[in-house]
Amino acid sequence: MLKLIQTLESEGHRVYLWTDHNYGKLSKYHINESLTRKRYSIKNPLNLISYIRTKVIIERSKWIERLMAWTSNNNIKEINQVFDHYLRSSLSIFSNLKPDFFYCWNPFCCHYGIAYDVAKALSIKTKAIEWGYLPNTFILDNFGTLAKSEVYINNPLPSFSNERLDQFQSEGEGIFENLKNQSLSLYNQKASNLPIELIERKLNQIRILVLAIDEVDAGAIPIEHKDRFGLLPFHKSSFDQAQAISKVNPEYAVIFKAHPSHNKYKENKQIATNLWIVNGNPDELIDWADVVFCSGSKMEFSVLLRNKPLINFGAGLLYGKDCAYEIKKLSELDIVVSTALKKQDFNLKITSFKTFLGYLKNEYLFSY
């Protein structure tokens, strides 16, 4: 984060850090605490206009549902008070500092995500920050993260010249070789404990791994909200998706691997004849699988880096970029799995992936 701040300073910006944590090395950038506690008075006509405008534009219902899920508090009155506090504190900060830009870490998180939406409502330029898809990088996205990101669904590569694409391909080749078989997981997870039934392959068994999307399963993206339909167009959660996959073919042996953040499925257990919940190291589970379902996670990269076919059952990061096998209709599931098992055009998908890696490094990610 320090390198990003210093880069912004070198471009002539004055930087303030608004955070709930105390970062010693960054303390000189911290916003004065009095600003975060200062009451936002709507008696001031200009403040009242901003307050009304923000209240009209922001999706209050979305944030109320997110807050209830993330705090495990279903008291509507209390949650509304929390929302109003975050809304007013955001307006107070922005009215006092009058920033030209607001960089927000993971706008799906409630406190600063509400501030992110307030900034947009006030026509403050925004960028979303998150851990990057490559080691030692950040995402700096003009639109948001996950399905709201500028690189989800949209394929940016056709806008570049053939010469530039060749450069991406060349650099991506080196990135791929350096990362091949490495772990990209940010979490230190224990070894996976496979059930006895899944250790030795049975005749005709097709091994499928479903990797969960934490923001959806944690409730950060409400089930009926349009943001969820990008990541999970056919199911209300990653677990629902795993259950649906297991019912398609009795020869499928399906493991559902919950995301370690906000994990509601901590107990390893068998759910159905051919469906299991298994926690632990995702790389070990990828190695176990024949094909992997993943949409909206850095683990999409790990799947291809470990030479396994990736299936997008929703708008993953690699969706629409010729890197993954894609299911666009429920009726296609068994056919797409069969195609992925045969690794049809898999080498072309790896080539596309390498080109995209080069693009990310050169055009999209911030390296630190």
Task: Summarize the SSE layout with pairings.
Blueprint: H1 2-10, H2 33-37, H3 45-57, H4 60-71, H5 76-97, E1 101-105, H6 110-121, E2 125-131, E3 137-141, H7 162-179, H8 196-199, E4 206-211, H9 214-217, H10 226-231, H11 238-248, E5 252-257, E6 269-272, E7 275-277, H12 282-288, E8 291-293, H13 299-305, E9 310-312, E10 325-326, H14 333-341, H15 346-364, E11 365-367
Parallel strand pairs: 1-2, 4-5, 4-8, 5-7, 8-9, 9-10
Antiparallel strand pairs: 2-3, 3-11, 6-7
Helix pairs in contact: 4-5, 5-6, 7-15
Task: Give an account of the 3D structure.
Helix 4 (60-71) crosses helix 5 and helix 5 crosses helix 6. The chain has a seven-stranded mixed sheet, with helices on both faces. A four-stranded mixed sheet has the order 1-2-3-11. The N and C termini lie close together (8 Å). It is built from 15 helices and eleven strands. The protein is of the alpha/beta class and 368 residues long. It has helices at 2-10, 33-37, 45-57, 60-71, 76-97, 110-121, 162-179, 196-199, 214-217, 226-231, 238-248, 282-288, 299-305, 333-341, 346-364, and strands at 101-105, 125-131, 137-141, 206-211, 252-257, 269-272, 275-277, 291-293, 310-312, 325-326, 365-367.
